[in-house]
Amino acid sequence: MHALFEVAADSLKRAGNPGDRDAIINAVKATKLDTLVGHIEWTGKPFPNVAKTPLVGGQWRKGSGDARFDLVIVSNKDHPDIPSAGELQTIPYA
Questions:
Q1: How many CB atoms lie within 10 A of CB 52?
Q2: What is the DSSP letter of 66?
Q3: Is 26 helix (H, G, I), strand (E, B) or coil?
Q4: 39: which strand partners?
Q5: Domain ranges of the chain
Q6: Would you call 43 exposed, middle or buried from its count of C-beta atoms within 10 A (0-12, 13-18, 19+)?
Q7: What distance in Å separates the CA atoms of residue 53 and residue 83, rounded to the nearest whole number?
Q8: Considering 46, 56, 70, 79, which has the largest number of Cβ atoms within 10 A of its Cβ?
Q9: Given pLDDT bands bounded at 50, 70 and 90, which one contains residue 16?
Q10: How far apart are CA 45 and CA 72, in angstroms?
């Protein structure tokens, strides 16, 4: 979800005029951006208007600080460049 905001902010910046719909559309189409979830680029592969990003496994756990939950990456087998922060754990329900 965060990457959507990164793409929106980047596209609006490159469009120059937030009121120019055509400039915004062209900016979104021309996006080539490294985001929190990986590189976003509309290449037309596998389909137009699709950008593939790396897929890793995460597990929600009891949060730290003010966060009720934290998302912990527990499987990065296909993308070792994305750091893993732990192993999959059984979560006790009380």
A1: 13
A2: T
A3: helix
A4: 34
A5: 2-41, 55-94
A6: exposed
A7: 15
A8: 56
A9: very high
A10: 30
